[in-house]
């Protein structure tokens, strides 16, 4: 188990099936965000981005509803229609 932790893996400690602790490498904890991200990529928890982030996703102006209507009105209409 220690070898797995040394390799960067996190081990969950259970007491009668209830999680009570997590064993992690001290080196992995000191790696910072880049090391944490690399560990998550190795375990398959996250994948690296495949391309550029569309600027529309990170703009400061929130998207406006289409048709000039209110979002609340649209939601209320959908509820009335049973959708």
Describe the 3D structure.
The protein is of the alpha+beta class and 83 residues long. It has a domain at 1-49. 40% of the residues lie in helices and 13% in strands. The chain contains 4 helices and 2 strands. It has a two-stranded antiparallel sheet. The termini are far apart.
Q: Write the H/E string, N to C.
A: HEEHHH
Mean pLDDT: 80
Q: What is the percentage of strand-forming residues?
A: 5-15%
Helix share of residues?
25-40%
The number of strands is 2
Shape: elongated
Separate helix tally: 4
Q: What structural class results from the helix and strand content?
A: alpha+beta
Q: Gyration radius, to the nearest Å? A: 23 Å
So what's the oligomer here? single chain
Largest beta sheet: what is the strand line-up? 1-2
How far do the termini sit from each other?
Answer: 51 Å
Unreliable stretches: none
Q: How can the largest sheet be summarized?
A: 2 strands, antiparallel
Structure, briefly:
The protein has 83 residues and is α+β, with helices and mostly antiparallel strands. It has helices at residues 2-6, 26-30, 32-43, 71-81; strands at residues 11-15, 18-23.
What attributes does this structure have?
alpha+beta, elongated, two-stranded antiparallel sheet, 83 residues, 13% strand
């Amino acid at each position: 188990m220690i070898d797995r932790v040394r390799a960067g893996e996190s081990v969950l400690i259970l007491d009668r099936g209830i999680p009570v602790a997590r064993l992690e490498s001290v080196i992995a904890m000191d790696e910072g965000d880049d090391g944490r991200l690399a560990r998550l990529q190795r375990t398959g928890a996250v994948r690296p981005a495949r391309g550029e982030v569309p600027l529309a996703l990170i703009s400061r102006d929130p998207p406006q509803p289409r048709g000039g209507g209110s979002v609340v009105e649209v939601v209320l209409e959908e509820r009335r229609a049973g959708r």
